[in-house]
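Reviewer 2 asked us to include a model.

Predict the structure of this chain.
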Amino acid sequence: MSSAILQRLPLDMFWPTFDPFLFCAFHNDHYPKGNGQMGPRASLSGRSLGQDFAGIDGWRMYHGKQVPGFPAHPHRGFETVTIVNKGLVDHADSMGAAGRYGEGDSQWMTAGQGVQHSEMFPLLNEEKDNPVELFQLWLNLPAKSKMVPPHFTMLWNEETPVVSVADEQGIESRIKVIAGDLGEVQALACPPNSWAADKSNGVVIWLIDIPAQGQCVLPAGEGGLNRTLYFFEGSQMQLDETLVASKQALILDPQQALTLNNTGESARVLLLQGKPIDEPVEQHGPFVMNSREELQQAFADYQQSQFGGWPWPRADQVHAKDKPRFADYGSLSEGKRLGNDGFADRVLC
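Predicted model (structure tokens):
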């Protein structure tokens, strides 16, 4: 085994993560044609609706009963980073904000002191299948930031930097820089209270595509960081001198460079890295705090305030079928709602 690889772990839907990351879910669903109401044109019999994770026929309804996805639910004390490679997500939240994003877009949401949101997967195409592929990462917040105001930022695909790196044979790999600068290429700004906002914390989220027979080198970083490489698509690669099959998480020594030689079909990997927050973590369901007392307070606060209530007609809120990709930041204050381009509201065709 390459000395840069410290450990290997298998991948399923929920991937192993390390401080400052709390969780990584990989959703890969080949949904059928839409039924006109943004649900699947297929029988739902035999599915455990409301808790459908079995993957029958290659897709899941998750907690949705008509439209797949995750109806209204609360969060406090951390951030979600949702990276959508295929398909669309309809966002709605307790601040009155809404959005439709996907096909390469990412949403970075700071739950902070508390927010409810829904994440539904509208199946808009009624003439052909509706594949959805996305990651959702949970990035912890330090104690000083757990009760900051909620915030979300859109990282639109058209604006997210992608670095092309050619090997000695001229084969180009592509590195999508969602967080963490790569050389002189700077990632788009993340929410201001994120652990990633301080570059000294070394947070990296890179999505890397390596063609067959291509080679890509992960540069060495600083010590004291947690670095994990997720080989989720492809067949096999040689990492330095170690042959590795896909569907594995590889815990790496961040101070050593690592050469990825793709000896199989086109491969895709996700790289997560960051300085550990190194604080106590107490988690129960959708709340992540530093103590049991803070968790109890989170539940009490949610029962009392519902984190602002739910201003939408449906818990599984979806937007009009003809709505393009967009972000509406709702009741967020002007100082909090401005995105990377300085515009409060954004519509993308």
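Helices lie at 292-305, 334-337. DSSP finds two helices and 25 strands in the chain. We have added this to the supplementary material.
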